[in-house]
Hints:
By secondary structure, this protein is of the alpha/beta class. It has eight helices and nine strands. The site of 6-{[2-(dimethylamino)benzyl]amino}pyridine-3-carboxamide has 15 residues, from strand 5.
Amino acid sequence: MKFDVLTLFPEMFEPLRQSIIGRAEEKKLIDINLINIRDFSKDKHKKVDDTPYGGGAGMIMRADVVYEAYKSINDKDAKVIYLTPQGKVLNQKKVENLSKEKHLILLCGHYEGIDQRVIDKIVDEEISIGDYVLTGGEIPAMVLIDSVSRYVDGVLSEDSTFEESFSHGILEYPQYTRPETFENIKVPEILQSGHHENINKWRRCQALENTYKKRPELLEKAELSEEDKAYLLDIAKNKK
Ligand code: 4G4
């Protein structure tokens, strides 16, 4: 999977090249190509922005400079995504669907944003990572690259992707590792029983209870079995 990132601040993407995403790039499972929009300014001072027509605060990124940067990519089949607070809010389903694309172009705005004419000309989809305002689209672009890359074959261990597909739409169960006793608190006994069927049931119940208590709205869209629903009714009854 290829990501081309159009940005004025390519250095901001350095922390992405760590850990799992860094290794995925080394293994050539993903390719993150950073394009500095400033390289496409024809101005002698390398100017990329200007004041807004009609007045108002701040600076707007110029349509012509952004367009030249975009044209340097030269792939008509790539999907162009603009990271903006005005976009549809990203969720796990959207992430999974984006991972099926071969080539994504991520357009990062800074300052007060980008001249609308080049957005209308090149952008296929607007995406927001949540209802809050940031100084630029770079962090949202990193969030998108990280979340989408997890679905690319070989990036995560087979085990993690299998387990994740099982908990579809609900929260995870709690996890424990050594030491067996921490500050006088023992690991739940069942996890050392070796009885995998019971462990799986316990984890499913913990996941459901977690979701019911912390994010009950997720249960409306989750795919639940009859057994799941019966357990949720029990939790609801025991609530004071
Ligand atoms: C485009 C238009 C995305 C990009 C305006 C980008 C939050 C998100 C930006 C702006 C962003 C998000 C300067 C407001 C850059 N902020 N929620 N900022 N602003 O995904």
